[in-house]
Structure formats: C-alpha cells, structure tokens
Amino acid sequence: MNTNPNIVIIGGGHNGLVAAGLLAKRGLSVTVLERRHKVGGASVTEHPWGPDYKVTALSYVMSLMPQQILKELDLPRHGYKIHPQHGYFSPLPDGRYLQLPADDQRRHEQISKFSKTDADAHARWNEWLGDLAATLGPLLATVPPKLGSKRPKDLLDQAKLAWRLRHVNQKKVGDITRLFTMSIADLVEEWFESDALQGVLAVSGVIGTWAGPRSAGTAYVMAHHQIGDLGDGEITGSWGFPEGGMGAVADALRSAAESFGAQVRTEASVSRILVRNERVAGVVLENGEELSADIVIATTHPKITFLDHLDKRELPDDLVAGIGRWKSRSGTVKVNLALDRLPDFTSKPGFDPEVHGGTIVLAPSLDTIEGAFQDALGGQPAETPFADICIPSVFDKTLAPEGHHVMSMFTQWVPHNYADAPHVTELDAYADRVIARVEELAPGFTNSILHRSVIGPYEMEHTYGLIGGNIFHGELSTNQMFHMRPFPGYADFTTPISGLYQGGSATHGGGGVTGIPALQVVKRIEHDQKHWRKGISFLR
Ligand SMILES: Cc1cc2nc3c(=O)[nH]c(=O)nc-3n(C[C@H](O)[C@H](O)[C@H](O)COP(=O)(O)OP(=O)(O)OC[C@H]3O[C@@H](n4cnc5c(N)ncnc54)[C@H](O)[C@@H]3O)c2cc1C
Predict the structure, then answer these.
(1) Which of 44, 52, 46 is nearest to 403 (CA)?
(2) Is the dihedral of CA 303, 306, 310, 312 positive or negative?
(3) Among candidate residues 505, 185, 181, the one with its CA nearest the CA of residue 370
(4) Contact criterion met (CB below 8 Å) for 263 and 2
(5) Which atom of ligand 1 is nearest the CA belonging to 308?
(6) Are strands 405-412 and 332-339 parallel, antiparallel or unpaired?
(7) 192 Cα to the center of ligand 1, angstroms
(8) Is 249 in the pocket of ligand 1 (CB under 6 A)?
(9) Between the N and C ends of the chain, which has fewer C-beta atoms within 10 Å?
(10) Can you give the pTM of this predicted structure?
C-alpha cells in the first residue's frame, strides 16, 4: 500500500471518484478515503431487504454528467449503461391523466386534452428553455471569477467572462434575470393555464429545495435540472436510469479509477486535515492513522470540511462565519419499495412503458405542492406530499427477481429540522400518506408492497453525510450560486489553505450526479501544478 500518496481525496462519492480517475489517468498517485463501507455517497445502490433487491437508495436518475468524463474514464467499459427515461405521467385525482411523451406531436395531443393554448405554448416553452440552456450550460462548466476583486488576475478573469457573454443580447439578459429571481409558480402561470401541466412542470423547480413553488428563485432550480448534458457543448436535458442503480455509476467510476492506479479505501473516515505553515500536509483518520499528502481534495459537505476537519484558527473569520450560515435544508424523504407487481392506474389501465418506465409525478397542481411546503414550513410533515416516482426495474432486470419491481419515490416535505432527530413514527405516517395517494390512483397498490424503507433528513445526514438533509450539499438558491458557491473568493475550487482544494456538490456545477466539480478541481490542480513546476507556489 502506498503510505505516502501525493493526492488524498476525502469522500468516495461520485465526485471523489471522478477526480481520482482523472488524476490517476494523468499519472498522479491518488488515494480516496471513504467513511462508509462502500463508495458512492448519494449515488449508491443498497440491499436493505437482502441480496434479491438492488435499491437505488437516494439519487435515482442520471443526466448532467459531461461526455468528457464518460469518455476520458471510458465508463461504458467499466459497466456504465443508461436506460433512457420515457417521459412523464401524471395521474390525477379526477380520473384523468396528463402524459408528456418525448414525441412532440403526441405531447401536443396530450396537453391539448387539458388546454389547446397550453399545448401550443409548450412547444415554445421547450424552445425558450433550450435557448437559455445554451447560454447557461457552458456557464455551469465555467470556473466562477472572483467578482468584485480588483487584483489584476481576477479583473482579467472577470473581463474574460464578460467577453464570453458578449453575444448575450438584452432580451436574454432579461430572461436570465427573471429565471434567477422568479418563482417557478409565477413562471409557469405566465406560460400555461392548466393546473395539471403547471403542477408537473413546477416539480423540477422545488426538487431538493427548502422552498415551495411560490418562493423566489425556484425558477432557476427548474432550469438547473433542464440544462442536461454539458461540457462539450451538447445540451440535451435528457434523463436515464443506470443499470444496477446509481451505485453502479459509482462502481464504474471506482473501477475506472483503480484501472489507472488510484487506491480506493472504504471505512477510512477522516477526522482532521493536517495543515503546516499554511499548507496542507495530509489527513488523520478516525483510527489515528496519518497520511501525508501534497494535495488534499475535500468532496465532503463544506460544514464537514471547514468546520469539522479544520481548526477555525486556520481559516479567515469571514469564511468560518459564511460556512456556518451555509443553507443546507430540504425536507426531502426518499421512500423505496419492493413490489410483487406493477401499479395499475385507473386512468390508464395496463402496462405502458411510457407510464411504468417513465417518471410518475404526483403533483396535480401548484397549490398542492405549495400546500405541502407550507405544512412543513409550519412545522408539520406534509399532509399531501408531492412525489416523483420511478420504477427502474421495468428496464433493468438486475434489480429485482423476475416479476417483482423496485420503486423509488422522491418526496417532499417534512420540516427541515427532522435532520436533528430520527422522527421514525412521523416518517412512517408520512410514507403511509404517499402510498395512500398512489392507492387512490392505482387500487391494489398497497397490497403489492413487499418491503419498504423510508430515508429522511436525519438518515441522510448521519448515514450519508448530507448535512441538514440537503440533497445537493447546499441549497441551489441564488445566494449560494456561482461565485457564492460555497463562499465568495473560493468558488474556484481552492481554499485559503495552499494545496487544499474542494470538489464536492457544494461547489459550482455541483448539485446532482454531474462530476462537474471533480472535473473542475482536476483542471485547477493541473493549472496550479504548472505554476509550481515553474517555481511559483501551488496557489495564488
Ligand atoms: C434523495 C436524493 C435524491 C437525489 N436524486 C438525484 C437524481 O436523481 N439525480 C441527480 O443527478 N442527483 C440527485 N441527487 C443529488 C446527488 O445525488 C448529489 O448531489 C451527489 O451524489 C453528491 O455527490 P458528491 O460526490 O459531491 O458527494 P457525496 O455523494 O455526498 O459524497 C461525499 C462522500 O464523502 C463521504 N464522507 C463524509 N464524511 C467523510 C469523512 N469524514 N471521511 C471520509 N469520507 C467522508 C460520504 O460518506 C460520501 O460518500 C439526489 C440526492 C439525494 C439525497
């Protein structure tokens, strides 16, 4: 075993593994240290009910990973395989349903059942979003400059960004400003009139967010999820289910990293980052083992990295205060089920790959979603939670025994302070209510359930390291975006400590299984190393 690695990566979530693979491929000596018994972090497949069922415990669908990562790490060779997701299906309490298939004409017909005006507007909406994504996509893969800094290099970076954006006309600046500041409810109400369409479209504005659809800034969250595949100019926004669940993505990343010589250690929990003379020197594990390192990349939640693993005296006071204020709530609850048959929806009986193999959305209107948030804001778990449901075993036969299925229900909200205590009874009652909603739409559903697990904010924090239960290591609110992610002056993947970098979801481009923070931190290290070789110190 290499006891003196050049690079130590804290956290074996997908970002840690992407960074490990890319750096090892460049010939560097890399060790990944993961606290849990397995890699993946929030991109994980678990076996809560024995070996027969593979459960994609937290995240459940891929979209935003740049082609560059897939290609450089040759992930398909390591088992990475995606089954495309087949549109959206929203069964409604009044017995109707709204379906949004990929095909333009069929989608038009579906929406026309509710409103011809909406059907026409939806085509324009997609064009409008695609156009905005063409501008925002590359920005997601851009290292944010240090806005406001007057240092010559930082002024140059700001000027470069302004130059890159010179083609953005006044209208688009207006649209982007509206997107960043508006609520998703105001936005979809401007475009559409039917409750059903407004409800389905609003869900992506509040996924993983401690904000209801009527809260300012949620329009951007929707756009973040629409931007899609990045990094090489290809922007699709299309989603898919990885074969073997999201843990298979982590396994493929681990296998790729190891094939290039990286070492991946599990049950290796870091307790301290060592700093000597304002430079990183290595890490100490919980068991007392010390590993020295020239470079450390922290992919952990920023509260873990800056407030637990470092001594406050090693950091500027304003950074410590800023990370202390970092908002990391969401009130998300994941309900995972094993079923002995597929649900049969009264509104659309029988098997339909676009229903059972798509995303089933329980969000009949903006008011229902907002009501769920208001319940949680008032301190109660939602009476009528919204749910984003998928059944990946429809395509992926590796997940469940023949004829059986696994169902993933992403739901919101419970009070965000459920991260402080398990609240098992309340979560069970909450899950019962989600299941009862499906039962109303697909009678017999409850009887088809063989097993269930309910993962709330406390478990997300304590088992998976998602502090506060936020699914993205920090809310995607305007005050925590771009040059603010996670703190002004350090959105370029560096930290105040020379040789210590950040590459987790709380950095720009993060939030989702994107690998973008990992790609960026690798580029940053390459850049700094060039300077180092020329005799200039590692950082600034
Ligand atoms: C319920 C849920 C649903 C989601 N759905 C989706 C989805 O469908 N699609 C999508 O793209 N994204 C989704 N996300 C978001 C996405 O999963 C995360 O943003 C992403 O996986 C985070 O990756 P990461 O590598 O930055 O961090 P993490 O995955 O959090 O990895 C950090 C790792 O650090 C480890 N660690 C913590 N402390 C220590 C320590 N002291 N020493 C060593 N290791 C440590 C943790 O165990 C963890 O493995 C979802 C998240 C959740 C929770």
Answers:
(1) 52
(2) negative
(3) 185
(4) yes
(5) 41
(6) antiparallel
(7) 35
(8) no
(9) N
(10) 0.95
**Nearest in space to 480 (alpha carbons), one of 310, 238, 233, 303:** 303
Give, using CA atoms, the residue closest to atom 1 of ligand 1: 58
- Encoded tokens for 495: 């930290």
**114 residue type, one letter:** F
Contact 420, 383 (CB under 8 A): no
CA–centroid distance, residue 40 to ligand 1 (Å): 7
Helix 170-181 crosses helix 116-140 at what angle (to 10 degrees)? Answer: 100
pLDDT in tens, 11-45: 999 999 999 999 999 999 999 999 999 999 999 99
Strand partners, 88: 100, 359
pLDDT at 4: 40
Q: How far is CA 328 from CA 154, 204, 306, 430, 472, in A?
A: 29, 18, 15, 22, 8
CA distance 50 to 56: 14
Query: Amino acid letter at 226?
Result: Q
What residue owns the CA closest to ligand 1's atom 14?
Answer: 59
The tokens of 147 are what? 């806005």
Do the Cβ atoms of 417 and 450 come closer than 8 Å? no
Tokens of 292: 């020295």
Query: Domain 7-44+62-82+241-326+486-533, what fold?
Result: FAD/NAD(P)-binding domain (3.50.50)
- What CATH architecture applies to the domain 332-464? 2-Layer Sandwich (3.30)
Q: Is the CB of 43 under 6 A from ligand 1?
A: yes
Closest C-alpha residue for ligand 1 atom 21: 42
Summarize pLDDT for 209-244 with one digit per residue, the tens. 999 999 999 999 998 887 653 333 343 445 789 999
| Nearest Cα residue to 26 out of 527, 537, 539 | 527
For CA atoms 120, 123, 128, 129, the dihedral sign is positive
Dihedral of the alpha carbons of 159, 165, 166, 172, in degrees to the nearest 10: -140
Task: Please identify which residue in the block is written with the tokens 């006891």.
Answer: 3
- Domain range summary for the chain, segments of one domain joined by +: 7-44+62-82+241-326+486-533, 84-234, 332-464
Give the pairing of strands 332-339 and 449-455: antiparallel
Query: Quick check: CB of 42 below 6 Å from ligand 1?
Result: yes
Across the range 505-522, mean pLDDT stands at 95
DSSP states of 140-168 as a string? HTSPPP-TT--SHHHHHHHHHHHHHTTT-
- Residue with token string 């400059």: 145
CA-based nearest residue to 234, from 75, 71, 68: 68
CA atoms within 13 A on the CB side of 68: 19
Q: How far apart, in whole angstroms, are the C-alpha atoms of residue 331 and residue 353?
A: 31
Pick from 238, 237, 246, 227: nearest CA to 80: 246
In this structure, are residues 95 and 348 in contact, taking their beta carbons and an 8 Å threshold? Answer: no
Burial 398-409 (b: 16+ CB within 10 A, else e): ebbeeebbbbbb
